[in-house]
Amino acid sequence: RFGDGPELADELLHLVLEGKKTATCWDAAEGLKGAEVGKPWAVKNSAGDIRCVLETVELTQRRFDEVDAQFASDEGEDDRTLASWRAAHEAYFTRNGGFAPDMLLNCERFRLVQIVGEGAER
User: Fold this and answer.
1) CA pair distance 109, 107, nearest whole angstrom
2) Which stretches of 15-103 are assigned E, i.e. beta strand?
């Protein structure tokens, strides 16, 4: 699942299914979480149902303060600006153990391979 709670998980999944979200990131201190370029992975909704399969197409590390406007837009959230990305992600990382402007992030781009379940078109 994406996010740190059921509401955010479903919101971010919806953005993926709409084609708006094609990237994500997490604190590099958490490791790679199994991410690997070319590797498919399943995304679940808040109920624990698999809703889609994604494939990692890029995996890089950047400091929080080095994330650019294109990556922020690719995350697909809010108004897709760098300013809104920074505000939302600072709040997220603060809630989840700590934030620093120079914290290292794993930044992943992915492609939607298959939609699973309700309304599966692909």
Assistant:
1) 7
2) 23-27, 40-44, 50-63
Helices and strands of the chain, counted as H and E runs: 3, 4
Please report, for residues 56, 61, 87, 122, the alpha-carbon distance to residue 98 in angstroms, rounded to integers and kept in the order given: 26, 18, 14, 38
Alpha carbon distance 61, 25 (integer Å): 9
Strand, helix or coil at 98? coil
Give, for 71, the enclosing helix (H) or strand (E).
helix 69-74
Digit-coded pLDDT (tens) for 73-91: 999 999 999 999 999 999 9
| CB burial readout 35-50, b (16+ within 10 A) else e | eeeeeebebebeeeee
